[in-house]
């Protein structure tokens, strides 16, 4: 028997449960408990539908829901306003009403796009997330950031719109390509470093079990990660109090690498792996943390087959990284903010990292 764990995001009237370890085939039960309307539009893509779509459709219909399916082409470039327009048309054709539901079945791309449509159609209808990548399970589906990309930049249009419930089934990760698995693992390492020493240590000790997709081990790290994100979101939903900002550990440099590569190069988690190491190198150089932490992080990320090498040697354009770093700085009122670790489970926001140090770590430092 699998154990289902329920973690809640506490936001008053907009609080919602995250069911972890529940089978996708039991989605009908989860939705039934919420007392939503009878019409459900499932937004997914061909690949994910092939694996899990029929199971979900069958269960919902068995429970008396009227289900429509819409498939979005695969890829980040379809997280766009044009796709959203197509989906609004589908909402009209299916005669969705205020009490109807949009169910996102897929990775972060589907989550953000479907959530955006749910947030805006009829000024907001019910949204349910069934994330099927590790990254979406531990990150994108929790916290209500929904949106689309514009040609100018990623996630430029969107909203904070919380789902009514999230169902996380670790079993669906069995069909996920290993590179996608690794990109999600990077965010789990992040949670360990920012808030949970024992999660980091669990990863060190149980990585082989996780690599073999042992359900119990996977569930444990997903539960711990979701618990951390749910708590932070409950405290600082709209990223106004600094609390939610610590989730950006590794992301200042990570985002710049992704942008420098025009989002065509490495996966998000791969860029974050390098970003976390570079932020920690900065923390070591500024004497905020010990070199031992950097070694442990590097070791763990390497075992996960995430990139750890100095950037310039892996052929990323250094100039483009700086350009995007400083664009980021402009957005944040002239200060480049880094999340730096003090020790495992403890990070802080630092605004005075000297530029020469950023350069030095990006070029590979003294290595
Ligand atoms: N909203 C947030 O807070 C938040 C947080 C982090 C990332 N994101 C967004 O998430 C997106 C990235 O998400 P992602 O990494 O999940 O990528 P993705 O959604 O592109 O999915 C990756 C690939 O895996 C496939 N796939 C999904 N589930 C599968 C399964 N179970 N079996 C086999 N294949 C499967 C998809 O079809 C796709 O080809 C980005 O757009 C990013 O901006 C949002
Ligand atoms: Zn991230």
**What is the count of helical runs?**
13
> Rg, please?
20 Å
Structural class of the helix and strand makeup? alpha/beta
- What is the CATH-assigned architecture of the largest domain? 3-Layer(aba) Sandwich
Output the helix-strand order.
EEHEHEHEHEHEEEHHHHHHHEEH
**Percent helix among the residues?**
40-55%
* Biggest sheet details: 7 strands, mixed
Oligomer: single chain
In the predicted model, the low-confidence regions spanning at least 5 consecutive residues are none
Based on Cα principal axes, name the global outline: globular
CATH class of the largest domain: Alpha Beta
Strand content range: 15-25%
Looking at the structure, the CATH topology of the largest domain is Rossmann fold
The ligands bound in this entry are: nicotinamide-adenine-dinucleotide, zinc ion
Mean pLDDT: 94
Kindly state the number of beta strands. Answer: 11
User: Termini separation (Å)?
Assistant: 49 Å
| Spatial order of strands in the largest sheet | 1-2-9-6-5-3-4
| Total tally of structural domains | 2
Question: Care to describe what's here?
Answer:
The chain is of the alpha/beta class. The chain folds into two domains: 5-175, Rossmann fold (3-Layer(aba) Sandwich), CATH 3.40.50; 249-367, Dehydroquinate synthase-like - alpha domain (Dehydroquinate synthase-like, alpha domain, Up-down Bundle), CATH 1.20.1090. It has helices spanning 27-32, 46-62, 81-93, 108-120, 134-140, 178-195, 197-211, 215-235, 251-260, 268-285, 291-303, 318-331, 355-362, and strands spanning 5-9, 16-20, 39-44, 66-71, 101-106, 126-131, 145-148, 157-160, 165-168, 338-343, 346-350. A seven-stranded mixed sheet has the order 1-2-9-6-5-3-4. Strands 7-8 form a two-stranded antiparallel ribbon. The N and C termini lie far apart (49 Å). 49% of the residues are buried. The mean pLDDT is 94. The structure holds nicotinamide-adenine-dinucleotide (NAD) and zinc ion. Zinc ion is lined by residues 139, 187, 251, 268, 272.
